[in-house]
Design brief:
By secondary structure, the chain is mainly α. It has one domain. It contains eleven helices and no strands. The longest helix is centred in the middle third of the chain and has 20 residues.
Amino acid sequence: MKEVVLIICAYLIGSIPTALLISKKFFGIDIRDYGSGNMGATNTFRVLGSRYGTIVMVFDILKGVLASSLYELLPFYASDELQRTNFIIGLGLAAVIGHIFPLWANFKGGKGVATLFGMVLALQPIIALSCVGVFLFVLYLTRYVSLSSILAAIMLPISVLWIWNENEVLYRVFALLVAFMVVFTHQKNISRLLRGVESRIPIFKSRDRRKARRKGEEDED
């Protein structure tokens, strides 16, 4: 019974509509009426800029970390690693479902990638850092948050199954399901990427200006 209560709490934590709260508080708009219509960090970057996109991303990650850490309220899970792993996955998935279908925002939320990352961070920090490394590297090269999220999600099962060779079956299944879910929820983004019309987020502008200047100088030569 206590586990059920904590899973419900994890869902409610995931339901906190960070992007919606920020868009209404600072801009007087509903973020879901702009851009892709999603209430997540990617759309916030696109609509409100890098500052507020970063804030939303950080808070959405913290939702996953906080929800997944609720297991600490039950002493039993401190001494049983297998049960702890399974319960953390359950709590984290409840938070992700809350983010995608938030109670506090008429069940219309985001795609849950940042909250998923927070969950993995609570579950296995080293693997989470390998995923965020892929995310940041791809983001630096392309400025596509969607592509960065997809490749980071694919890095999760690669890390779990082959690099770190985790033995827990549920953890392996979870990693594969995460990759599948992220790819599935980004179908429209994948279509736009293939057509070359996906929006880039407004970061690394100075790098882009340097590249443009160098290209202009080369053209002049």
